[in-house]
Amino acid sequence: MYDFAYHKPTTVADAVKILAADSDARPISGGQTLLPALKHRLNKPTSVVDLSGIAELRGIKRDGNKIVIGAMTRHADVANSAEVKAAIPMLAMLASGIGDPAVRNRGTIGGSVSNNDPAADYPSAVVALNATVVTSSRRIAADDFFQGMFTTAMEPGELLVAVEFPIPEKAGYAKMRNPASRYVMAGAFVAKTGGQVRVAINGAAACVFRQKDMEAALSANWSPAAVAGVKQAADDMNSDIHGSAEYRAHLVTVMAKRAVAAAG
Fold first, then answer.
1. Looking at residues 137-157, what average pLDDT do you find?
2. Per residue in 58-117, pLDDT tens?
């Protein structure tokens, strides 16, 4: 681990000020990604900005027809939230299946969404539920936020503050996990909100993406059978020792069918 300065601000404004003044400063929330990177010397920030002291970044609330979750809210808190369970039970279920108990009790939704790991769970929910990502300076639509592997629309010095999830009529999520790492090899989150159907695929490619052929099929007939005949092209799928691109493409259809069944 390299030497770095340590800051623990108590307001979003102070954190943004520190990050804006130093392009090599890095925020840390639950530390599930940055800490291993520091230990292995894969990242060399000049400053680490600890967000754990910022109370305004924590919490879950219902605001009209949406659930608002603060960036520093832990996965375990989302999984156990009565508000989330009542409004979007599939989001609570998703959070309950992230990593292991240690990860769920340290990792945060803001860290996961802003990191945009291809195998992360939350990005699929953000896209399928057409959520809005609220930052320290603006509001970003889900379709504009995730731009590629570990890449988002956020600018240097910008801090994720909260995620606003519209409450859907129906939602379902299913994933195939690597049995060793527990990372998602292919997952599908399906949702119907205000009559609009959205299908988000995670784990299978370099970045979460919408499966629009499945969206069209489900718009006409909301059933597992509707997506069973939709085949995902393998061209842009990930391929590694754990599974070929063709295997992951097949899993996309299998997980989408399971997700629709879970949604009811």
1. 97
2. 999 999 999 999 999 999 999 999 999 999 999 999 999 999 999 999 999 999 999 999
| Pair 159, 221: CB distance under 8 Å | no
**Would you say residue 185 lies in a domain?**
yes
| Total domains present in the chain | 2
Q: CB within 8 A of 86, min separation 6: which ones?
A: none
pLDDT score of 179? 86
Q: Is residue 232 part of a domain?
A: yes
Residue 1's pLDDT band (cuts 50, 70, 90): confident
The secondary structure of residue 232, as a DSSP letter, is P
User: d(Cα 208, Cα 148) in Å, to the nearest integer?
Assistant: 8
pLDDT exceeds 90 at position 126 = yes
Amino acid at site 33: T
What is the residue whose two structure tokens read 């061209």?
A: 235
Q: What is the DSSP string of 163-211?
A: EEEEPPSEEEEEEEE-TTT--EEEEEEEEEETTEEEEEEESSBSS-EE-
Task: Work out whether strand 132-135 and strand 66-70 pair parallel, antiparallel, or are unpaired.
Answer: unpaired
Is residue 14 situated within a structural domain?
Answer: yes
Question: 244 is in which domain, residue-wise?
Answer: 168-264
- CATH code, 256: 3.30.390.50
* Token reading at 93: 């279920």
In a domain, 191, yes or no: yes
Please, which pLDDT band fits residue 180 given cuts at 50, 70 and 90? Answer: confident
Amino acid at 65: N
